[in-house]
Protein backbone atom coordinates (compact mmCIF):
# COMPACT_ATOMS: atom_id res chain seq x y z
CA UNK A 1 0.00 0.00 0.00
CA UNK A 2 1.48 3.27 -1.15
CA UNK A 3 0.03 6.65 -0.19
CA UNK A 4 -0.01 9.01 -3.17
CA UNK A 5 -1.61 12.15 -1.74
CA UNK A 6 -2.71 13.55 1.55
CA UNK A 7 -5.02 16.40 2.58
CA UNK A 8 -6.91 17.53 5.63
CA UNK A 9 -10.62 18.07 5.07
CA UNK A 10 -12.31 21.02 6.79
CA UNK A 11 -13.33 19.05 9.82
CA UNK A 12 -9.81 17.78 10.38
CA UNK A 13 -10.38 14.40 8.77
CA UNK A 14 -7.19 13.14 7.10
CA UNK A 15 -7.88 11.97 3.54
CA UNK A 16 -5.16 9.90 1.87
CA UNK A 17 -5.29 8.45 -1.62
CA UNK A 18 -3.39 5.22 -2.01
CA UNK A 19 -2.66 2.48 -4.47
CA UNK A 20 -2.47 -1.18 -3.63
CA UNK A 21 -0.77 -2.69 -6.65
CA UNK A 22 -2.88 -1.37 -9.52
CA UNK A 23 -5.92 -0.62 -7.34
CA UNK A 24 -6.54 3.01 -6.37
CA UNK A 25 -8.26 3.76 -3.10
CA UNK A 26 -8.92 6.38 -0.45
CA UNK A 27 -8.50 6.21 3.31
CA UNK A 28 -10.14 8.68 5.70
CA UNK A 29 -9.07 8.78 9.35
CA UNK A 30 -10.46 10.91 12.20
CA UNK A 31 -8.02 13.72 12.97
CA UNK A 32 -8.37 13.39 16.68
CA UNK A 33 -8.22 9.63 17.20
CA UNK A 34 -6.07 8.71 20.19
CA UNK A 35 -6.65 4.95 20.01
CA UNK A 36 -6.72 2.86 16.80
CA UNK A 37 -10.03 3.60 15.08
CA UNK A 38 -12.55 0.93 14.07
CA UNK A 39 -12.83 0.71 10.30
CA UNK A 40 -15.78 0.82 7.91
CA UNK A 41 -15.19 -0.28 4.32
CA UNK A 42 -17.28 1.87 1.98
CA UNK A 43 -18.71 -0.03 -0.96
CA UNK A 44 -19.99 1.72 -4.09
CA UNK A 45 -21.09 0.80 -7.62
CA UNK A 46 -17.78 1.73 -9.29
CA UNK A 47 -16.30 4.98 -10.57
CA UNK A 48 -14.48 6.51 -7.61
CA UNK A 49 -14.28 10.03 -8.98
CA UNK A 50 -18.02 10.18 -9.71
CA UNK A 51 -18.83 8.63 -6.33
CA UNK A 52 -16.31 10.81 -4.45
CA UNK A 53 -18.73 13.47 -3.10
CA UNK A 54 -21.07 10.90 -1.53
CA UNK A 55 -18.21 8.75 -0.22
CA UNK A 56 -16.38 11.73 1.28
CA UNK A 57 -19.58 12.95 2.94
CA UNK A 58 -20.12 9.49 4.39
CA UNK A 59 -16.46 9.33 5.50
CA UNK A 60 -16.69 12.68 7.29
CA UNK A 61 -19.92 11.63 8.97
CA UNK A 62 -18.25 8.41 10.11
CA UNK A 63 -15.08 10.16 11.24
CA UNK A 64 -17.19 12.37 13.50
CA UNK A 65 -18.28 9.14 15.19
CA UNK A 66 -14.68 7.94 15.53
CA UNK A 67 -14.48 5.60 12.54
CA UNK A 68 -11.82 5.32 9.88
CA UNK A 69 -13.26 4.57 6.44
CA UNK A 70 -11.72 3.31 3.24
CA UNK A 71 -12.78 2.57 -0.28
CA UNK A 72 -11.19 1.15 -3.43
CA UNK A 73 -12.00 1.37 -7.12
CA UNK A 74 -13.88 -1.65 -8.50
CA UNK A 75 -12.34 -3.86 -11.20
CA UNK A 76 -13.25 -2.49 -14.63
CA UNK A 77 -14.34 0.93 -13.32
CA UNK A 78 -12.73 4.39 -13.20
CA UNK A 79 -9.20 4.26 -14.65
CA UNK A 80 -8.88 0.51 -14.22
CA UNK A 81 -8.64 -1.75 -17.30
CA UNK A 82 -11.95 -2.71 -18.86
CA UNK A 83 -12.99 -6.33 -19.19
CA UNK A 84 -14.67 -7.19 -22.51
CA UNK A 85 -17.19 -9.65 -21.03
CA UNK A 86 -18.15 -7.23 -18.25
CA UNK A 87 -18.56 -4.40 -20.78
CA UNK A 88 -20.80 -6.63 -22.88
CA UNK A 89 -22.94 -7.51 -19.84
CA UNK A 90 -23.14 -3.83 -18.86
CA UNK A 91 -24.27 -2.91 -22.41
CA UNK A 92 -26.89 -5.70 -22.35
CA UNK A 93 -28.15 -4.45 -18.98
CA UNK A 94 -28.35 -0.87 -20.22
CA UNK A 95 -30.25 -2.01 -23.31
CA UNK A 96 -32.79 -3.95 -21.21
CA UNK A 97 -33.27 -0.97 -18.87
CA UNK A 98 -33.69 1.47 -21.76
CA UNK A 99 -36.23 -0.82 -23.41
CA UNK A 100 -38.09 -1.04 -20.10
CA UNK A 101 -37.73 -4.83 -20.20
CA UNK A 102 -37.41 -6.86 -17.00
CA UNK A 103 -33.70 -7.49 -16.47
CA UNK A 104 -32.86 -11.11 -17.13
CA UNK A 105 -31.10 -12.93 -14.30
CA UNK A 106 -28.67 -14.28 -16.90
CA UNK A 107 -27.41 -10.73 -17.64
CA UNK A 108 -27.15 -9.97 -13.91
CA UNK A 109 -25.11 -13.16 -13.41
CA UNK A 110 -22.71 -12.24 -16.23
CA UNK A 111 -22.30 -8.74 -14.79
CA UNK A 112 -22.19 -9.34 -11.04
CA UNK A 113 -20.68 -12.79 -10.39
CA UNK A 114 -17.29 -12.09 -12.06
CA UNK A 115 -17.25 -8.65 -10.41
CA UNK A 116 -17.81 -10.19 -6.98
CA UNK A 117 -15.19 -12.88 -7.67
CA UNK A 118 -12.61 -10.23 -8.55
CA UNK A 119 -13.53 -7.48 -6.11
CA UNK A 120 -13.77 -9.49 -2.91
CA UNK A 121 -10.12 -10.67 -2.83
CA UNK A 122 -9.12 -7.06 -3.58
CA UNK A 123 -11.14 -5.83 -0.62
CA UNK A 124 -9.50 -8.51 1.51
CA UNK A 125 -5.99 -7.50 0.38
CA UNK A 126 -6.91 -3.89 1.14
CA UNK A 127 -8.08 -4.92 4.59
CA UNK A 128 -4.80 -6.79 5.17
CA UNK A 129 -2.88 -3.62 4.32
CA UNK A 130 -5.12 -1.24 6.28
CA UNK A 131 -4.94 -3.33 9.43
CA UNK A 132 -1.14 -3.02 9.48
CA UNK A 133 -1.52 0.76 9.98
CA UNK A 134 -1.21 1.77 13.65
CA UNK A 135 -4.11 4.24 13.36
CA UNK A 136 -6.55 1.48 12.30
CA UNK A 137 -7.84 -1.16 14.68
CA UNK A 138 -10.63 -3.68 14.52
CA UNK A 139 -13.51 -4.31 14.46
CA UNK A 140 -14.40 -3.84 10.81
CA UNK A 141 -17.72 -3.13 9.11
CA UNK A 142 -18.80 -2.94 5.48
CA UNK A 143 -21.27 -0.32 4.30
CA UNK A 144 -22.69 0.33 0.90
CA UNK A 145 -23.78 -0.87 -2.43
CA UNK A 146 -23.10 -3.73 -4.77
CA UNK A 147 -24.90 -5.93 -2.31
CA UNK A 148 -23.30 -9.04 -3.87
CA UNK A 149 -19.85 -7.83 -2.80
CA UNK A 150 -21.01 -7.06 0.74
CA UNK A 151 -22.75 -10.42 0.90
CA UNK A 152 -19.69 -12.40 -0.27
CA UNK A 153 -17.40 -10.44 2.08
CA UNK A 154 -19.77 -11.20 4.97
CA UNK A 155 -19.47 -14.91 4.15
CA UNK A 156 -15.73 -15.26 3.49
CA UNK A 157 -14.11 -12.55 5.59
CA UNK A 158 -14.25 -13.27 9.33
CA UNK A 159 -12.74 -9.88 10.19
CA UNK A 160 -15.99 -8.17 9.08
CA UNK A 161 -18.29 -7.98 12.10
CA UNK A 162 -21.34 -6.15 10.74
CA UNK A 163 -22.60 -4.92 7.38
CA UNK A 164 -24.94 -2.22 6.19
CA UNK A 165 -26.09 -3.34 2.76
CA UNK A 166 -27.79 -1.08 0.26
CA UNK A 167 -30.30 -3.22 -1.61
CA UNK A 168 -30.28 -1.01 -4.65
CA UNK A 169 -28.20 -3.01 -7.06
CA UNK A 170 -28.72 -6.12 -9.11
CA UNK A 171 -28.19 -9.46 -7.42
CA UNK A 172 -27.96 -12.78 -9.21
CA UNK A 173 -30.65 -15.10 -7.86
CA UNK A 174 -27.85 -17.66 -7.42
CA UNK A 175 -26.57 -15.56 -4.52
CA UNK A 176 -29.76 -16.23 -2.50
CA UNK A 177 -28.22 -19.54 -1.44
CA UNK A 178 -25.00 -17.82 -0.43
CA UNK A 179 -27.04 -15.35 1.64
CA UNK A 180 -28.05 -18.19 3.96
CA UNK A 181 -24.41 -18.49 5.03
CA UNK A 182 -24.27 -14.89 6.27
CA UNK A 183 -24.44 -14.80 10.07
CA UNK A 184 -23.14 -11.34 11.03
CA UNK A 185 -25.56 -8.55 12.09
CA UNK A 186 -27.03 -6.78 9.06
CA UNK A 187 -28.83 -3.55 8.34
CA UNK A 188 -30.36 -3.71 4.86
CA UNK A 189 -31.53 -0.42 3.35
CA UNK A 190 -34.10 -0.65 0.57
CA UNK A 191 -35.49 2.27 -1.41
CA UNK A 192 -39.06 0.99 -1.74
CA UNK A 193 -39.94 2.98 -4.85
CA UNK A 194 -36.61 2.56 -6.66
CA UNK A 195 -37.77 1.62 -10.16
CA UNK A 196 -34.39 0.24 -11.18
CA UNK A 197 -34.50 -2.22 -8.32
CA UNK A 198 -36.13 -5.64 -8.01
CA UNK A 199 -38.01 -5.15 -4.74
CA UNK A 200 -39.18 -8.73 -4.43
CA UNK A 201 -35.64 -10.00 -4.90
CA UNK A 202 -34.42 -7.62 -2.20
CA UNK A 203 -37.11 -8.97 0.17
CA UNK A 204 -36.21 -12.57 -0.74
CA UNK A 205 -32.58 -11.76 -0.07
CA UNK A 206 -33.37 -10.23 3.31
CA UNK A 207 -35.39 -13.31 4.16
CA UNK A 208 -32.55 -15.60 3.09
CA UNK A 209 -29.81 -14.03 5.21
CA UNK A 210 -28.87 -16.45 7.99
CA UNK A 211 -28.13 -13.69 10.50
CA UNK A 212 -29.99 -13.87 13.79
CA UNK A 213 -29.88 -10.09 13.99
CA UNK A 214 -30.97 -8.47 10.76
CA UNK A 215 -33.00 -5.34 10.16
CA UNK A 216 -34.62 -4.22 6.93
CA UNK A 217 -35.33 -0.53 6.60
CA UNK A 218 -37.36 0.54 3.59
CA UNK A 219 -37.82 4.22 2.75
CA UNK A 220 -39.32 6.30 -0.01
CA UNK A 221 -37.47 8.76 -2.22
CA UNK A 222 -36.05 6.81 -5.16
CA UNK A 223 -32.61 5.30 -5.70
CA UNK A 224 -30.56 8.26 -4.48
CA UNK A 225 -33.14 9.61 -2.03
CA UNK A 226 -32.07 7.67 1.07
CA UNK A 227 -33.23 9.94 3.92
CA UNK A 228 -30.69 11.51 6.26
CA UNK A 229 -32.09 9.65 9.25
CA UNK A 230 -31.26 6.32 7.56
CA UNK A 231 -27.60 7.37 7.60
CA UNK A 232 -27.93 8.16 11.29
CA UNK A 233 -29.57 4.79 11.87
CA UNK A 234 -26.54 3.30 10.10
CA UNK A 235 -24.27 5.06 12.58
CA UNK A 236 -26.23 3.64 15.48
CA UNK A 237 -26.13 0.17 13.89
CA UNK A 238 -22.33 0.29 13.72
CA UNK A 239 -22.13 1.79 17.22
CA UNK A 240 -23.99 -1.28 18.50
CA UNK A 241 -21.77 -3.77 16.67
CA UNK A 242 -18.32 -2.28 16.16
CA UNK A 243 -17.65 -0.87 19.59
CA UNK B 1 -63.30 12.56 31.57
CA UNK B 2 -63.06 11.70 35.24
CA UNK B 3 -59.77 10.89 36.95
CA UNK B 4 -60.17 7.93 39.30
CA UNK B 5 -56.64 7.46 40.66
CA UNK B 6 -53.30 9.17 40.59
CA UNK B 7 -49.77 8.05 41.37
CA UNK B 8 -46.23 9.21 40.69
CA UNK B 9 -44.01 6.60 39.06
CA UNK B 10 -40.39 6.33 40.16
CA UNK B 11 -39.11 8.67 37.52
CA UNK B 12 -41.60 11.38 38.42
CA UNK B 13 -44.07 10.54 35.66
CA UNK B 14 -47.64 11.25 36.76
CA UNK B 15 -49.92 8.29 36.01
CA UNK B 16 -53.66 8.93 36.20
CA UNK B 17 -56.40 6.39 35.55
CA UNK B 18 -59.54 7.87 34.11
CA UNK B 19 -62.93 6.95 32.76
CA UNK B 20 -64.60 8.55 29.79
CA UNK B 21 -68.18 7.44 30.06
CA UNK B 22 -67.80 3.67 30.37
CA UNK B 23 -64.32 3.57 28.86
CA UNK B 24 -61.38 3.16 31.25
CA UNK B 25 -58.04 4.67 30.31
CA UNK B 26 -54.66 5.82 31.60
CA UNK B 27 -52.86 9.12 31.08
CA UNK B 28 -49.15 9.56 31.72
CA UNK B 29 -47.62 13.05 31.83
CA UNK B 30 -43.99 14.06 32.29
CA UNK B 31 -43.47 15.37 35.80
CA UNK B 32 -41.30 18.23 34.73
CA UNK B 33 -43.13 19.63 31.70
CA UNK B 34 -43.25 23.40 31.73
CA UNK B 35 -45.09 23.82 28.43
CA UNK B 36 -48.04 21.69 27.24
CA UNK B 37 -46.62 18.32 26.19
CA UNK B 38 -47.18 16.76 22.77
CA UNK B 39 -49.28 13.62 23.04
CA UNK B 40 -48.81 10.06 21.83
CA UNK B 41 -51.84 7.76 21.87
CA UNK B 42 -50.72 4.22 22.77
CA UNK B 43 -52.60 1.51 20.89
CA UNK B 44 -52.66 -2.11 22.07
CA UNK B 45 -54.54 -5.32 21.28
CA UNK B 46 -56.98 -5.03 24.21
CA UNK B 47 -56.81 -6.02 27.86
CA UNK B 48 -55.34 -3.00 29.66
CA UNK B 49 -54.31 -4.82 32.82
CA UNK B 50 -52.40 -7.50 30.88
CA UNK B 51 -50.81 -4.86 28.64
CA UNK B 52 -50.05 -2.47 31.51
CA UNK B 53 -46.35 -3.35 32.04
CA UNK B 54 -45.48 -2.77 28.36
CA UNK B 55 -47.63 0.34 28.09
CA UNK B 56 -46.24 1.87 31.28
CA UNK B 57 -42.67 1.16 30.14
CA UNK B 58 -43.42 2.83 26.81
CA UNK B 59 -45.08 5.76 28.61
CA UNK B 60 -42.06 6.29 30.89
CA UNK B 61 -39.73 6.11 27.91
CA UNK B 62 -41.86 8.70 26.09
CA UNK B 63 -42.17 10.94 29.16
CA UNK B 64 -38.37 11.07 29.33
CA UNK B 65 -38.53 12.59 25.83
CA UNK B 66 -41.16 15.10 26.89
CA UNK B 67 -44.30 13.36 25.62
CA UNK B 68 -47.59 12.75 27.38
CA UNK B 69 -49.09 9.37 26.50
CA UNK B 70 -52.57 7.95 26.92
CA UNK B 71 -54.37 4.72 26.29
CA UNK B 72 -57.91 3.41 26.59
CA UNK B 73 -59.42 -0.06 26.89
CA UNK B 74 -60.73 -1.50 23.62
CA UNK B 75 -64.44 -2.29 23.20
CA UNK B 76 -65.10 -5.87 24.34
CA UNK B 77 -61.79 -6.21 26.22
CA UNK B 78 -60.81 -6.04 29.89
CA UNK B 79 -63.83 -5.25 32.07
CA UNK B 80 -65.86 -3.84 29.18
CA UNK B 81 -69.02 -5.65 28.02
CA UNK B 82 -68.44 -8.49 25.58
CA UNK B 83 -69.99 -8.49 22.13
CA UNK B 84 -71.34 -11.87 21.01
CA UNK B 85 -70.33 -11.49 17.35
CA UNK B 86 -66.81 -10.35 18.28
CA UNK B 87 -66.46 -13.25 20.74
CA UNK B 88 -67.55 -15.67 18.01
CA UNK B 89 -65.01 -14.20 15.56
CA UNK B 90 -62.29 -14.39 18.22
CA UNK B 91 -63.13 -18.05 18.87
CA UNK B 92 -63.05 -18.79 15.13
CA UNK B 93 -59.67 -17.08 14.87
CA UNK B 94 -58.28 -19.03 17.81
CA UNK B 95 -59.53 -22.28 16.31
CA UNK B 96 -57.87 -21.52 12.95
CA UNK B 97 -54.59 -20.61 14.67
CA UNK B 98 -54.64 -23.73 16.86
CA UNK B 99 -55.32 -25.91 13.83
CA UNK B 100 -52.42 -24.22 12.05
CA UNK B 101 -54.79 -23.24 9.23
CA UNK B 102 -54.29 -20.04 7.26
CA UNK B 103 -56.56 -17.41 8.81
CA UNK B 104 -59.44 -16.64 6.50
CA UNK B 105 -59.90 -12.97 5.59
CA UNK B 106 -63.61 -13.42 6.35
CA UNK B 107 -62.82 -14.15 10.03
CA UNK B 108 -60.43 -11.19 10.18
CA UNK B 109 -63.13 -8.92 8.72
CA UNK B 110 -65.69 -10.08 11.29
CA UNK B 111 -63.18 -9.52 14.10
CA UNK B 112 -61.44 -6.31 13.08
CA UNK B 113 -63.87 -4.15 11.09
CA UNK B 114 -66.50 -3.79 13.87
CA UNK B 115 -63.67 -3.24 16.38
CA UNK B 116 -62.22 -0.44 14.27
CA UNK B 117 -65.68 1.07 13.74
CA UNK B 118 -66.29 1.18 17.50
CA UNK B 119 -62.79 1.97 18.76
CA UNK B 120 -61.93 4.87 16.49
CA UNK B 121 -64.74 7.22 17.65
CA UNK B 122 -63.78 6.34 21.24
CA UNK B 123 -60.18 7.31 20.57
CA UNK B 124 -61.43 10.54 19.02
CA UNK B 125 -63.62 11.33 22.04
CA UNK B 126 -60.64 10.60 24.28
CA UNK B 127 -58.54 12.95 22.21
CA UNK B 128 -61.21 15.68 22.53
CA UNK B 129 -61.10 15.29 26.31
CA UNK B 130 -57.33 15.08 26.60
CA UNK B 131 -56.77 18.20 24.52
CA UNK B 132 -58.86 20.26 26.96
CA UNK B 133 -56.25 19.56 29.68
CA UNK B 134 -53.79 22.44 30.06
CA UNK B 135 -50.83 20.05 30.41
CA UNK B 136 -51.48 18.49 26.97
CA UNK B 137 -50.80 20.29 23.72
CA UNK B 138 -50.60 19.25 20.11
CA UNK B 139 -49.25 17.75 17.95
CA UNK B 140 -50.54 14.22 18.42
CA UNK B 141 -49.12 10.87 17.34
CA UNK B 142 -50.44 7.31 17.47
CA UNK B 143 -48.19 4.40 18.33
CA UNK B 144 -48.94 0.75 18.58
CA UNK B 145 -50.84 -2.26 17.54
CA UNK B 146 -54.18 -3.08 16.02
CA UNK B 147 -52.89 -1.59 12.81
CA UNK B 148 -56.48 -1.23 11.51
CA UNK B 149 -57.29 1.24 14.30
CA UNK B 150 -54.13 3.26 13.67
CA UNK B 151 -54.84 3.20 9.94
CA UNK B 152 -58.44 4.42 10.31
CA UNK B 153 -57.39 7.11 12.82
CA UNK B 154 -54.72 8.29 10.39
CA UNK B 155 -57.41 8.67 7.72
CA UNK B 156 -60.24 10.28 9.70
CA UNK B 157 -58.53 12.23 12.47
CA UNK B 158 -56.69 15.32 11.19
CA UNK B 159 -55.22 16.05 14.65
CA UNK B 160 -52.96 12.97 14.31
CA UNK B 161 -49.73 14.08 12.65
CA UNK B 162 -47.66 10.89 12.56
CA UNK B 163 -48.16 7.22 13.36
CA UNK B 164 -45.93 4.34 14.38
CA UNK B 165 -47.82 1.22 13.39
CA UNK B 166 -46.97 -2.26 14.62
CA UNK B 167 -47.74 -4.64 11.76
CA UNK B 168 -48.26 -7.58 14.03
CA UNK B 169 -52.01 -7.90 14.02
CA UNK B 170 -54.58 -9.11 11.55
CA UNK B 171 -55.78 -6.67 8.93
CA UNK B 172 -58.78 -7.19 6.68
CA UNK B 173 -57.67 -7.05 3.05
CA UNK B 174 -60.53 -4.55 2.56
CA UNK B 175 -58.45 -2.02 4.51
CA UNK B 176 -55.75 -2.01 1.80
CA UNK B 177 -57.91 0.47 -0.14
CA UNK B 178 -58.32 2.65 2.94
CA UNK B 179 -54.53 2.60 3.40
CA UNK B 180 -54.16 4.57 0.16
CA UNK B 181 -55.91 7.50 1.85
CA UNK B 182 -53.28 7.72 4.61
CA UNK B 183 -50.94 10.66 3.96
CA UNK B 184 -49.26 11.34 7.33
CA UNK B 185 -45.67 10.20 8.00
CA UNK B 186 -45.54 6.56 9.06
CA UNK B 187 -43.08 4.23 10.71
CA UNK B 188 -44.24 0.64 10.27
CA UNK B 189 -42.59 -1.98 12.47
CA UNK B 190 -42.77 -5.56 11.27
CA UNK B 191 -41.46 -8.59 13.13
CA UNK B 192 -40.22 -10.55 10.11
CA UNK B 193 -40.36 -14.00 11.68
CA UNK B 194 -43.63 -13.51 13.58
CA UNK B 195 -45.47 -16.73 12.70
CA UNK B 196 -48.87 -15.34 13.72
CA UNK B 197 -48.51 -12.54 11.22
CA UNK B 198 -49.22 -12.41 7.49
CA UNK B 199 -45.95 -10.94 6.27
CA UNK B 200 -47.03 -10.50 2.67
CA UNK B 201 -50.15 -8.63 3.76
CA UNK B 202 -48.01 -6.34 5.94
CA UNK B 203 -45.78 -5.62 2.92
CA UNK B 204 -48.84 -5.01 0.70
CA UNK B 205 -50.20 -2.65 3.34
CA UNK B 206 -46.92 -0.74 3.56
CA UNK B 207 -46.91 -0.46 -0.21
CA UNK B 208 -50.52 0.80 -0.23
CA UNK B 209 -50.08 3.64 2.27
CA UNK B 210 -50.37 6.93 0.41
CA UNK B 211 -47.86 8.71 2.65
CA UNK B 212 -44.92 10.34 0.91
CA UNK B 213 -42.80 9.70 3.95
CA UNK B 214 -43.12 6.14 5.16
CA UNK B 215 -40.51 3.81 6.59
CA UNK B 216 -40.77 0.07 7.06
CA UNK B 217 -38.49 -1.44 9.67
CA UNK B 218 -38.41 -5.23 9.86
CA UNK B 219 -36.60 -7.01 12.66
CA UNK B 220 -36.13 -10.55 13.92
CA UNK B 221 -37.16 -11.86 17.30
CA UNK B 222 -40.78 -12.99 17.05
CA UNK B 223 -44.00 -11.18 17.90
CA UNK B 224 -42.90 -9.76 21.26
CA UNK B 225 -39.19 -9.51 20.45
CA UNK B 226 -39.12 -5.98 19.01
CA UNK B 227 -35.53 -4.89 19.69
CA UNK B 228 -34.84 -1.98 22.03
CA UNK B 229 -33.31 0.06 19.23
CA UNK B 230 -36.63 -0.03 17.34
CA UNK B 231 -38.22 1.77 20.29
CA UNK B 232 -35.46 4.36 20.13
CA UNK B 233 -36.01 4.70 16.38
CA UNK B 234 -39.67 5.29 17.23
CA UNK B 235 -38.66 8.13 19.56
CA UNK B 236 -36.59 9.70 16.79
CA UNK B 237 -39.48 9.29 14.35
CA UNK B 238 -41.80 11.22 16.66
CA UNK B 239 -39.08 13.78 17.41
CA UNK B 240 -38.93 14.51 13.67
CA UNK B 241 -42.68 14.85 13.26
CA UNK B 242 -44.23 15.98 16.54
CA UNK B 243 -41.89 18.81 17.52
- Tell me the number of strands of chain A: 9
Could you tell me the strand content of chain A as a percent range? 25-35%
What is the CATH architecture annotation of chain A?
3-Layer(aba) Sandwich
Low-confidence stretches of chain A: none
Number of helices of chain A: 7
Q: How far from one another are the termini of chain A? A: 26 Å
Q: Would you kindly provide a written description of the structure presented here, covering whatever features stand out?
A:
Two copies of one chain form a homodimer. Chain A contains seven helices and nine strands. Chain A has 243 residues and is an alpha/beta fold. Chain A has one domain: Rossmann fold. The longest helix of chain A has 26 residues, at 105-130. Chain A is globular. The interface between A and B is medium-sized, with 20 and 20 residues.
Give a summary of the structure in a few sentences.
Chain A has helices at 48-64, 84-98, 105-130, 147-156, 175-179, 199-208, 228-241; strands at residues 2-8, 14-20, 23-29, 37-43, 68-72, 136-144, 160-166, 186-191, 214-219.
Amino acid sequence: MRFTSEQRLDDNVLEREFTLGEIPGILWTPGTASAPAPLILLGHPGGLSKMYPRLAARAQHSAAQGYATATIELPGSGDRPRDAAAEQARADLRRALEAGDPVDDEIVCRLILPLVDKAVPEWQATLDALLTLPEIGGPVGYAGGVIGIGLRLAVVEPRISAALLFAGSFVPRAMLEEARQVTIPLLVLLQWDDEGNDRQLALDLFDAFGSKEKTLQANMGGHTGVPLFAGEDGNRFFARHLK
